[in-house]
Amino acid sequence: MTTPKKNTWLRQWTGPLTSELVRTPGGFGLGQVPAGRAPSATTSMVCGFCSTGCGLNVHLRDGEAVNLTPDPAYPVNLGMACPKGWEALAPLDAPDRATAPLLRDPVTGGLKPVSWERALREFTARFKSIQSRHGSQAIAFLSTGQICTEEMALLGALFKFGMGGLHCDSNTRQCMATAHVAYKESFGFDAPPYTYADFEESDVLVFVGSNPCIAHPILWQRVLRNPHQPAIVVLDPRRTETAVNATLYLPLAPKSDLPLLYGLAHALIARDAVDHEFVSAHTRGFAEFAAFVQEFTPERACAAACLRREDFDRCVDLIARGRRVSFWWTMGVNQGHESTRTAQALINLALMTGSIGRPGTGANSITGQCNAMGSRLYANATSLLGGRSFASAADRSAVADLLGIPADRIPSENSWAYDQIVDGMESGAIRGLWVIGTNPAHSWIRHGRFQELAARLDFLVVQDLYATTDTARSAHLVLPAAGWGEKEGTFINSERRIGLVKRVRRAPGEALSDFAIFQLIARAWGCGPMFEAWRDPEAAFQILKRLSAGQPCDITGIRDFRHLDESGGIQWPCPCPAGVPSPEIGLCHGTPDALADAATPGMGASGASSQATERRLFEDGRFYTVDGRARFVFEAPREVDEPVDAEYPWVLLTGRGTSAQWHTNTRTGKSRVLQLLYPAECYVEIHPADARRLGLRPGQPVRIRSRRGSLEASAFITPTIAPGQVFVPMHYDGVNRLTYPSFDPHSRQPSYKHCAVMVEAVGTARPL
Ligand code: SF4
User: Fold this and answer.
1) Separation of 49 CA from ligand 1 center, angstroms?
2) Do the Cβ atoms of 342 and 265 come closer than 8 Å?
3) Closest Cα to atom 1, ligand 1: which residue?
4) Which residues make Cβ contacts (< 8 Å) with residue 494, sequence separation at least 6?
């Protein structure tokens, strides 16, 4: 046997030949491309990582994707993409793709390939057996914001209406539940009001707990295109990349945002920077809110947030003087112990200053996952399909009629939230769990408990692209799923734009699209006829249109997938043009021209923007509440659940590390290019003063301990983190061994942004 020759910097013995790398004209307006990847056609689709929803031009050869570039014509990204988007095809080629169903062998304890017939028999027999022994509610699912809307809707309908289950949730609970509840309570519907053009039209942008430079780099590029020389205000405990670029940075103490935001409201009212006309015509509860924030004086707010008074005053001044002020938040707000009220404190600031419904304004939650918005509207978990309520008999009856199923198949009870499902695993109420496209054994807060409880389940099914995720490794059954690019459907991005996903690759082996897997399960379960109309993703999209009719998220004006493709995505609402809808079924029978008009300004249920490709909500000042008025919602702040003390004196913050990593790194970890863009080993950011106190050198291994577990990481000594705080990126396994399971009481979203830890040196320095 010959020994393979070793690659050197001078000569590579493996990889593409030089002739394949030589650049050649790519055609299709692509400029030059590597000769080995010259396309024979291109097509456009949206990216499958984050909620920005960039358009990507996929380069095809013989119908298969060989490469991609950002789409210059797509109204979201205007020809830009972050590293994840550029590398979106790489995870599909990973050698550890699940290519056949895998069943745990009771003798060897290992996972063994089986046929789909056998896998489906096991799935139905074992879940049905659990239901017959412990009740129909003893099975649950945990899904994802990463699959197509049509798939989420079919899954939710199948589980609740077909399989008789009740408890289900998705990893969107970990990122967007707060925004969902906050908007619903304040606006009457889960409706992020903005359009991305607002980044370019504001003269003051306030980012709270949001680091778009890293988390949403293309949206940051939109900010940089703003021609109005805007003031950028950043409120964040870490001096993030965005904070470094801010006009004003407020380094607030972790989880002090609620008293600070109430203090800002107090100061703006004291200065009479209130849009009284807007408040009186379009809101309810301002007088009570103004009385409530009386006690949140600037002194109190600054003391709570550990801020300098002059910075606080400057922030008030910028907001008061701004003509187009926009408020943006992300996980720093959503992942907190009082997150819903914090999000609403931002909404209150926008309402009282009349900063909503106009270009460059809004109380704007930037979503995380590529289809978190689809999940919020159509997953059938927290809300009944189309943003309806399970508790409403009228809503249940409407959905039953639209789907042609008996109304009594629709539960009137709400599902347990994610944390309650995990509690149910502990109490024995949940005996069987189906995990789809998510990895709670890494990502769930205090994940050690999840891992322990998952091991006790009677039956754990994981449906995923890979059989190697932390969760899949303890599954009884793994169902191999196709990934983004191997199936079709739609995603809804942060600005409510519905974009198209296309099948540009064959899934490996016997992997199937999630949609096809749900169809097979429906048939194997014996409820196939109930879902006959869900023939394929596009037929399911037509069902979603019917379900949206008359709702704030009405999309009956979108004709079909082709219409989305030709329009560069379409934002909801997009109802049928007047006089065109068929009220019985909510479908639009308009001519192509009339339907195209539906995607233009003026057709939105609540107003639209001044550009055909951009649709902003609330331009007419009418909200989705019964009386059309937005609500001021507020509540007294409370202490964090695990304050620091002498034994655990540091605050642990977690969040995104780089724009090359995504969540648990399940997919981004497969790209050799992306691997070069982030440290391979876990690191912890620590302030130089703290490092000196501990005698730490850069790169030195440290142990971070909480009451729940410990983690080793390399010290990254940086003044961007404040003394007394440490930051560990969420992408490295083990970080959630440390986190404390505290939840916002309204959204039940976990608080990943605060827990008490101890930090100690454990070895000598090594380079990062
Ligand atoms: Fe755009 Fe997000 Fe995809 Fe990056 S990951 S290309 S920002 S959609």
Assistant:
1) 6
2) no
3) 54
4) 51, 52, 53, 192, 219, 365, 366, 367, 373
pLDDT at residue 14 in the model: 82
> What SS3 class is residue 366?
coil
The pLDDT tens digits of the residues spanning 342-399 come to 999 999 999 999 999 999 999 999 998 999 999 999 999 999 999 999 999 999 999 9
Continuous H helices in 135-256: 149-157, 177-187, 197-201, 212-215, 217-224, 241-244
Pocket test for ligand 1, best of 49, 146, 370, 659 (most atoms within 8 A of CB): 49
Taken as a whole, the chain contains a residue count of 768
Residue 53 Cα to ligand 1 midpoint, Å, equals: 6
- Within 6 Å (CB) of ligand 1, which residues are found? 47, 49-50, 52-54, 77, 81-82, 84-85, 217-218
- Supply the residue whose CA is at minimum distance from atom 3 of ligand 1: 85
β-bridge mates for residue 139, sequence order: 432
Report the pLDDT value the prediction gives residue 4, as an integer from 0 to 100.
Answer: 74
**What are the pLDDT digits (tens) for 535-547?**
999 999 999 999 9
| Number of neighbouring beta carbons within 10 Å of residue 578 | 9
Are the beta carbons of 632 and 284 closer than 8 angstroms? yes
pLDDT one-digit tens code per residue, 239-278: 999 999 999 999 999 999 999 999 999 999 999 999 999 9
State residue 208 phi and psi, 5-degree precision. Answer: -115, 120
Contact 593, 54 (CB under 8 A): no
Hey, whose CA ends up nearest to atom 4 of ligand 1?
Answer: 82
Q: Which residues pair with 232 in a beta bridge?
A: 205
Cα(119)–Cα(102) distance, integer angstroms: 8
Quick: pLDDT tens for 110-129. 999 999 999 999 999 999 99
Which residues fall within 8 angstroms of residue 669, CB to CB, at 6 or more apart?
661, 675
CA–CA separation, 67 and 60 (whole Å): 7
- In ligand 1, the atom with minimum distance to the C-alpha of 50 is 2
Q: How far apart are CA 473 and CA 481, in angstroms?
A: 16
Find, among 462, 510, 523, the residue nearest to 482 by Cα. Answer: 510
Q: Tens digits of per-residue pLDDT, 65-113? A: 999 999 999 999 999 999 999 999 999 999 999 999 999 999 999 999 9
Q: Cα 443 from chain centroid?
A: 13
CB-based contacts of 339, cutoff 8 Å, min separation 6 = 178, 333, 744, 747, 749, 751
CA of 229 relative to ligand 1 center, distance in Å = 25
Percent of the chain with pLDDT over 90: 89
Pocket probe mutation, ligand 1, options 44, 54, 74, 367, max atoms within 8 Å of Cβ: 54
- Give, using CA atoms, the residue closest to atom 6 of ligand 1: 85
For ligand 1, the distance from its centroid to the CA atom of residue 82, given in whole angstroms, is 5
The closest-lying atom of ligand 1 relative to the alpha carbon of residue 81 is 6
Closest CA to 382 of 527, 208, 168: 168
pLDDT band at 3 (very low <50, low <70, confident <90, very high): confident
Structure token digits, residue 331:
């996980």
Extract the tokens encoding 147: 């699959």
pLDDT, one tens digit per residue, over 611-620 is 357 889 999 9
Q: Report residue 604 as tokens.
A: 């939105």
At residue 143, the 3 state secondary structure works out as strand
Asked whether 207 and 232 are in contact (CB, 8 A), the reply is yes
Integer angstrom CA distances of residue 354 from 181, 275, 428, 571, 687: 21, 5, 50, 23, 40
Show the DSSP H helices in 645-761 as ranges. Answer: 672-675, 688-694, 735-738
> Cβ neighbours of residue 423 under 8 Å, at least 6 residues apart?
416
DSSP string, 551-573: STT--TT---HHHHHHHT-EESP
Q: Of all helices (H) and strands (E), which one includes residue 265?
A: helix 257-270
Tokens of 733: 């396994």
